[in-house]
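Q: what does this look like with manganese (II) ion bound?
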Amino acid sequence: MIKAQISELKTLLSSPKNIVIVPHRNPDGDAMGSTLGLYHYLKLYNHNATVIAPNDYPDFLKWLPGDDTVLKFETQQDACMPLIAKADLIFTLDFNAFHRAGHQMAVALETASATKVMIDHHQQPDDYAKYMYSDVLMSSTCEMVYNFIDMLGDTQKIDATMATCLYVGIMTDTGSFRFPATTTKTHQIIGSLIEKGANHSEIHNNIYDSNSYSRLQLLGRAMQNLKVIPELRTAYTTLSQAELDEYNFKKGDTEGFVNYGLSLNGIIFAAIFIENKNENIIKISLRSKGTFSVNEFSRAHFHGGGHTNAAGGRSETDLESTINKFISILPQYKNELSQTQNGL
Ligand code: 5GP
Ligand code: MN
C-alpha cells in the first residue's frame, strides 16, 4: 500500500465511521485473529465497527477477545444487512474475491456503497478495493494488520488484546512459525506482540490443546485411510460423512489433518477429501512443500485456490469419483512432483 493511500485512510479514520470487517467463509485463526485485531484497533478511535463473519467458526477460536461481538451473516442476516448497507468502510480481510464470503454475502458486499479496503495475502486478488494491501509473500493477514497499524503510525497503540488476536493468526498460518513464509520480520513482530502482552503459551494451549476425545479418534480414522503414491511423492486421505457422523464431527475438527500427510518422509504433496452431505460437495484441502503450486492445481481442477503451498477446493461429484479424478490427474504433474529441490 503506497504512502498516499495510507495518509488518505488515516484522514478517513480520523473521525468516527460506520465500519464492517469481514473474514472469509469458514474463518480460520488468521481470518478471526486479523478481523478482531483490527476491530479492537478501530474501537480505540470510537468507530462504530462490527466484525461480520459469513458463517460460524470452530470452538477453538471462540475464546478470542471480542468473539461475543461477532455477527454471523448466515444466521443473523437481518442484523447484518443494514450494517453492510450503511457502512462507510468495509474491510475484507484474509480473502481477495467476494465469492470467498459465500454467495449471499458476496451479493451484499458487491451492492454495498461503502469504500472497500482489502488486506490479504492470497494469490490473484480481484479488483474491488479502493485501498488494497495485497502481498502474497506475507506469512499471514495478521502480520499485515500489524504492518497496517504500523504504517498508520500507531504501533504503540497495540495493546494486549490486539496483540493476542494478531498472535493467533500468525501462529496458525505459519504452522507455528515453520512454513517458509515465516521471516525474521515475522519473528520481530511476534517479539513485539509478546512485549505488548500476548501470552504465547496460553494462546498455543487454547488453540492446539483443546481437543475432544472424538476429534482425536476422527484423526485416527483419517490416518487409517491415508494412502501413499511414493513415485509421485503424494499422500491423500478421505473422511466420509458416515465416518464424520460416527465420531461426532464438529466444525473445525478436521483442521490440520491434511498436514500429517506432508510429515511422511519424501512426501511433498498432501490432500484430504471430506464429504459434506449437507452441502452436497467434497471439501478438499491441499498442501505442498517447495515449488509445486497447489493454488494452480486447485484452480485448474477443483474450483478453488489459495497459496502456493496451501489451498482449498471442492468437488461436486461423489467421494469415489473425486478420488478417481484426483488420481488420474496426478501423472500430468509427474515432472514437478518428482523433482528434488532445496533438500526436499
Ligand atoms: P483450507 O484447506 O484450510 O480450507 O485452505 C487453505 C488455504 O487456501 C487458506 O488460506 C484458504 O483461505 C485458502 N482457500 C481455501 N479454499 C479456497 C478457495 O476456494 N479459493 C481460494 N482462492 N482460496 C481458498
Ligand atoms: Mn491467512
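Residues 30, 94, 121, 140-141, 173 surround manganese (II) ion (ligand 2) (CB under 6 Å). The first strand starts at residue 18 and ends at 22.
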